[in-house]
Design the sequence.
């Protein structure tokens, strides 16, 4: 869900930013019959609107901005009964601890490997699936396949993990039996650290590849159809048309989605990883998100884990601005 | 465009159709197996590697889970939290979206910028957890609803939608003496039913599927939601090296796992036709309109 929201949110940002649309003020509507001047007059006129606005503003202040202020405990030694304000400052102590901790290189490695596997496998697969669906002229087949492959997107990670537990269950899971039979092995896929990453990528593919095609299919629908006719007359075959017309036609969408994906790289998906983590695969399964949970919530190292989380968000922001700048340098329209 | 079919093109089409059909079927297979397994008896599940239809049809697994208080409690809880949560979240979002749709409202721009900023930065898991704790919401179902009360993205889409409704409607209502709240309730909301339905589904799926919030905020296992219960039932105990598991817990038989998965998936599958339609539309609103 959060991925969808993020993708959508940034797509808004892609067009005219939601924050800027007011400044742009479309066509001048009839002059507002609003009393200008003193705020008290304005407020009295709009009191009902301000009343409606209040719960939302309180929500953002309490549940969005108060935690942002709470991030300051990353530079403090948080003591529950002293609170965020009362706890003593310790500077960058927690960051130094984290960077010198042997956990750090391991977490960074695990996180990056998963991120690159997803970028390198799941991301291109989404484009390939969209291209294949786009080639289907039989609309009933296209719709049916779309309907089927979108379903997993709506299921929770708990269900995806549970399905994996059943399919790979030791000694009787269908995929446990099938894969071991084919490979002539006796591997417990759920606890073998070597199989953790393939399993995660497989889940990601099953859950989100189908849904991810929506954006690309929408982009594909905007590719100029006349170009295809011209190419056909010039004798271009199916693959050359895809290569020279279709792919360039959706290049900007691919780049935007890639920037988004890279910006989200360190967000390995807490729920998915947490659910698939067990005592035997911790060495490869621990990523920043789950580490923050284990160290922060279960061990109570609030300040230290907040520092880890802050480090992760900052890297994420650098990544998204960095890729955006890079995309612009290569003369592509970036995200913003 | 003219349909032009070379031999190569036809072979490609045929291969493509077969391949995509297979992808569709493979996507579905885990469900079919789980549904079949939930109606099979224990012996059949462990004996047969894979099946899409049980040899012996039994409701035993369902009878069992519905007879255990832990499961029925989790199910009822989740249904109630989802229903109440969706209404609360939708109410918060709509009441905030409406004033923000008024371009003449002072302070609107500042608030919108702050909303967008909150889309990019967040306090993160621990500060949010500490806040919920300080508010005394630990082990309260409100902890599953309030922290996510307004999705900034939904807020902006709904705001944009209100902004595009014809002004004249409101103006005539105002002349008839309606207040802003009256206009929202009697004129705008009835006009926005499809949009509201979309975001209601959005929120409902979010709450139903949520695993992280109950994991963080509900340590009392008598309050667990269905997703937490599902996690406990399906992760066999020897694999659970981590966190939140009831120590007195005895792992159930396989059939029960199948049945719980089916129950947890069912509402999503029932609402899926609406979800697909509205979510796909929402996805495109986001990318095209901005």
Sequence:
């Amino acid at each position: 869900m959060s991925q969808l929201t993020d993708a959508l949110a940034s797509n808004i940002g892609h067009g005219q930013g939601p924050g800027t649309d007011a400044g742009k003020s479309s066509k001048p509507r009839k002059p507002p019959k609003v009393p200008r001047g003193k705020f008290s007059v304005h407020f009295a006129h709009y009191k009902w609107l301000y009343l409606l606005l209040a719960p939302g503003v309180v929500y953002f202040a309490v549940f969005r901005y108060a935690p942002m202020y709470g991030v300051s405990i990353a530079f403090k030694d948080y003591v529950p009964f002293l609170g965020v304000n009362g706890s003593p400052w310790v500077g960058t102590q927690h960051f130094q601890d984290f960077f010198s901790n042997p956990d750090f290189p391991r977490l960074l490695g695990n996180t990056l490997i998963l991120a690159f596997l997803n970028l390198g496998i799941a991301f291109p697969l989404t484009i390939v699936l969209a291209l294949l669906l786009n080639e289907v002229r039989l609309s009933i087949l296209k719709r049916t396949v779309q309907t089927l492959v979108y379903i997993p997107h709506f299921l929770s990670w708990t269900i995806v993990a549970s399905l994996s537990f059943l399919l790979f269950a030791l000694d009787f899971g269908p995929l446990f039996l099938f894969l071991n039979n084919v490979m002539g092995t006796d591997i417990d896929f759920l606890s073998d650290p070597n199989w953790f990453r393939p399993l995660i990528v497989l889940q990601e593919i099953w859950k989100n590849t189908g849904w991810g095609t929506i954006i690309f299919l929408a982009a594909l629908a905007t590719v100029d159809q006349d170009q295809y006719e011209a190419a056909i007359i010039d004798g271009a075959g199916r693959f050359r048309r895809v290569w020279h017309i279709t792919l360039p036609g959706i290049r900007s969408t691919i780049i935007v989605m890639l920037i988004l994906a890279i910006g989200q790289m360190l967000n390995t998906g807490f729920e998915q990883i947490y659910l698939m983590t067990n005592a035997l695969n911790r060495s490869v399964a621990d990523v920043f998100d789950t580490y923050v949970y284990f160290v922060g919530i279960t061990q109570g190292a609030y300040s230290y884990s907040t520092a880890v989380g802050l480090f992760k968000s900052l890297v994420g922001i650098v990544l998204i601005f960095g890729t955006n700048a890079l995309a612009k340098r290569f003369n592509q329209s970036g995200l913003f | 465009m003219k349909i032009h079919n070379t031999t190569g093109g036809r072979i490609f089409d045929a291969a493509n159709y077969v391949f995509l059909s297979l992808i569709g079927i493979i996507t579905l297979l885990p469900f079919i197996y789980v549904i079949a397994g939930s109606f099979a008896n224990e012996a059949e599940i462990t004996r047969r590697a894979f099946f899409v239809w049980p040899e012996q049809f039994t409701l035993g697994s369902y009878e069992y889970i519905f007879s255990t208080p832990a499961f029925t409690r989790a199910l009822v809880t989740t249904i109630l939290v989802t229903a109440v949560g969706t209404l609360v979240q939708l109410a918060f979002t709509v009441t905030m979206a409406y004033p923000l749709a008024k371009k003449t409202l002072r302070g609107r721009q500042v608030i919108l910028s702050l909303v967008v900023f909150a889309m990019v930065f967040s306090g993160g898991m621990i500060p949010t957890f500490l806040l919920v704790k300080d508010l005394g919401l630990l082990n309260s179902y409100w902890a599953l609803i309030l922290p996510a009360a307004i999705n900034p993205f939904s807020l902006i889409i709904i705001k944009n939608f209100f902004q595009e409704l014809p002004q004249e409607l409101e103006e005539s209502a105002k002349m008839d003496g309606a207040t802003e709240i009256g206009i929202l309730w009697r004129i705008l909301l009835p006009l926005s039913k499809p949009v509201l339905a979309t975001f209601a589904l959005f929120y409902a799926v979010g709450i139903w599927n949520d695993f992280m919030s109950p994991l963080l905020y509900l340590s009392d296992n008598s309050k667990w939601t269905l997703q937490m219960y599902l996690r406990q039932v399906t992760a066999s105990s020897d694999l659970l090296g981590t966190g939140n598991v009831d120590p007195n817990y005895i792992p159930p038989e396989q059939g029960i796992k199948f049945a719980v998965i089916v129950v947890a998936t069912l509402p999503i599958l029932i609402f899926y036709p609406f979800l697909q339609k509205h979510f796909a539309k929402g996805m495109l609103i986001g990318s095209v309109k901005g």
About this structure: The longest helix of chain A spans residues 103-135.
